[in-house]
Specification:
Beta-Lactamase, alpha+beta, 144 residues
Length: 144
């Protein structure tokens, strides 16, 4: 097997707010037992200035699907409507959700943070452990 580049790889430098979310995610890692935090350690109130730009999605394996559990107000407003409780394949592909499913799939498959940038926003997705597998994805979106 060759060592290929991960799609949606993190850039050398993240936007400041995304860097804050990434640093928060890293602080939640419980020692050396895991390379990612547990989903139930994530609390949006720990990042009050960014809470409206965060989202949490459940990751299902077979079939692979992602359900939006919590979506910040700014993300919903940018998208144009609420989509809490809906699966990613049930919502229209509009910013800031374009390429969300493929990015989330790479996040789960690689078990690593991923990054997407368009002309007007950037998105960070971070894997979260639970129940013996990556069970959730933490996301953050910032306007550029």
């Amino acid at each position: 097997m060759t060592n290929s580049a991960i799609p949606y790889a993190l850039p050398p430098k993240l936007e400041p707010d995304l860097a804050d979310v990434h640093a928060y995610w890293q602080r939640l890692i419980r020692g050396q037992a895991s390379n990612m935090p547990y989903w139930d350690d994530v609390t949006f109130s720990d990042l009050p200035a960014l809470a409206d730009r965060l989202m949490l999605a459940t990751a299902f394996a077979k079939p692979e699907r992602f359900r939006f559990e919590i979506v910040g107000k700014e993300i919903s407003a940018h998208y144009g409507r609420e989509f809490n409780g809906r699966f990613a394949d049930e919502v229209d592909v509009n910013p800031p959700l374009d390429f969300f499913r493929s990015q989330a799939s790479v996040t789960v498959e690689s078990g690593a943070p991923t990054y997407f940038r368009s002309n007007d926003y950037a998105r960070l997705l971070l894997p979260l452990w639970g129940e013996g597998h990556i069970s959730m994805v933490l996301g953050a979106v910032v306007r550029i």
